[in-house]
């Protein structure tokens, strides 16, 4: 049997390179495909996309070949979850192959808007706000050279997600959903996260992890163990 592709999309300000170290612990029949966003990592020289629709179109175009060459599933964390959701809507419209499963991590469902818009704050205030999310190196607050590289990326990402408009109707996907969330994540509601089920006819499961917004780093071993278990379930349906 061919490998099942795992397409991973990162959080705001992040690079797909954060998923590379998962490879050594994922089952051998999972082909890890970190999906890089424009303006960072191996795509550092490309222009950033601060318009969410343009960002989704970019990712859709970049993965079309991957999803047409065998079974696959998505994993998106935080902003990556929202990108995955909108890419799936595009796949449905274009009658493209849908994933065997879709895993949304660290994100409220699309109709739950962000409480605050911070992308217009000055650099100092903006840094202080995003530092509260965790996952941001402490030297970012003191190293101006590092901040000058990182700030435009994460500001662009926050502009994209803060100005995102969810679909007027809660369109449903014919695809199983799985939702990961941190029990101490102050940016995700343990009640509202259940409403991801409104967007699928394929059933929805939830897995809670100890930790905050970046529980995928704090509970890396448990997260990968669950991904391997999900893969085992998918293989039985192929």
From TrEMBL:
Residue ranges annotated for the Thioesterase domain, each copy included: 5-230
InterPro entries found in the cross-reference section: AB_hydrolase_fold, TEII, Thioesterase
Gene Ontology biological-process entries: lipid biosynthetic process
Annotated family: Belongs to the thioesterase family.
PANTHER family named in the record: S-ACYL FATTY ACID SYNTHASE THIOESTERASE, MEDIUM CHAIN, THIOESTERASE
Protein name from the UniProt record: Surfactin synthase thioesterase subunit
